Amino acid sequence: MSEMKTALVTGANKGIGYETAAGLAARGYRVAVGARDADRREAAVERLRADGAEAFGVPLDVTDDRVVAEAAALVERQAGRLDVLVNNAGISGPRDPGLGQEPTALDLDVVRAVVDTNVLGVIRVTNALLPLLRRSPAPRIVNVSSSVGSVTRQADPSAQVGPVMAAYAPSKSYLNAVTVQYARHFADTGILINAVCPGLVATDFTGFLGPRTPQQGAAIAIRLATLPDGGPSGGFFEEDGTVPW
Predict the structure, then answer these.
(1) For the chain, where are the E strands, in sequence order?
(2) With contact defined as beta carbons under 8 Å apart, do 31 and 41 qualify?
(3) Catalytic residue numbers?
(4) pLDDT of residue 81
């Protein structure tokens, strides 16, 4: 295997995930495009290759144990190790016309589905890829969260936090808490793990309502994915600095 560093980005066929993969490729990484949809995944790989990247597709449904295990085996065959894991895949669950999720009318199956992807999926993928990350001299893990997961901001009546999202927002709070537990476990190992907020980005996830481009949203993930040794771990970051818990 070559000594080129390898990065796996989940949900990398479009939006912030694709731009994160593209940004890492521009920095010399081989990129593994993790995505469920085969056609979109391969289209993203071909687009990256057309721009000069070394890229390969990884069939990946973060909610499926078998598929995740097969994804880890594929990365091992293709690269031998993993240097960066960006857990970008996520869902909001159904929303009302105002893009909200009222807690008093919330279907518990929606909560389960959102948590399965946004939290359990991150744990599932991270643990499956951990043996390959441990082979890297400088492993980095980035969990793509959201500032709506900040309980401090959500509880502040003066904060601009958007609609009530009773499934999605708490799933990101849970993800942030899990990130801290991983950081504690990885203390003194050289593995750095952080949560990031890309901001309100104009993608299909937001109905293209955000003021930020996918490239702008990907920048913070790329920054944390390429931290030098001794960088922060167990933090929650956005473009302007740290996000309060």
Answers:
(1) 6-10, 30-35, 55-59, 84-87, 140-144, 192-196, 236-238, 241-242
(2) no
(3) 168
(4) 98
Give the angle 196-243-137 at the CA atoms, nearest 5°. 40
235 dihedral zone (left: phi>0; alpha: psi -120 to 50; beta): beta
The beta-carbon contacts of 166-170 under 8 Å, at least 24 apart in sequence, are 166/101, 166/102, 166/103, 166/106, 166/111, 167/92, 167/93, 167/101, 167/106, 167/110, 167/111, 167/114, 168/92, 168/93, 168/101, 168/114, 168/118
CA atoms within 13 A on the CB side of 82: 29
Angle value at C-alpha 121, between 230 and 166, nearest 5 degrees: 100
Ramachandran assignment for 34, one of left (phi > 0), alpha (psi -120 to 50 degrees), beta (any other): beta
Q: Token digits for 216?
A: 């702008």
In total, the chain counts a number of residues equal to: 245
Distance of alpha carbon 237 from alpha carbon 194, whole angstroms: 8
Give me the residues paired with residue 34 across strands.
10, 58
Amino acid at 146: S
pLDDT in tens, 97-145: 887 899 999 999 999 999 999 999 999 999 999 999 999 999 999 999 9
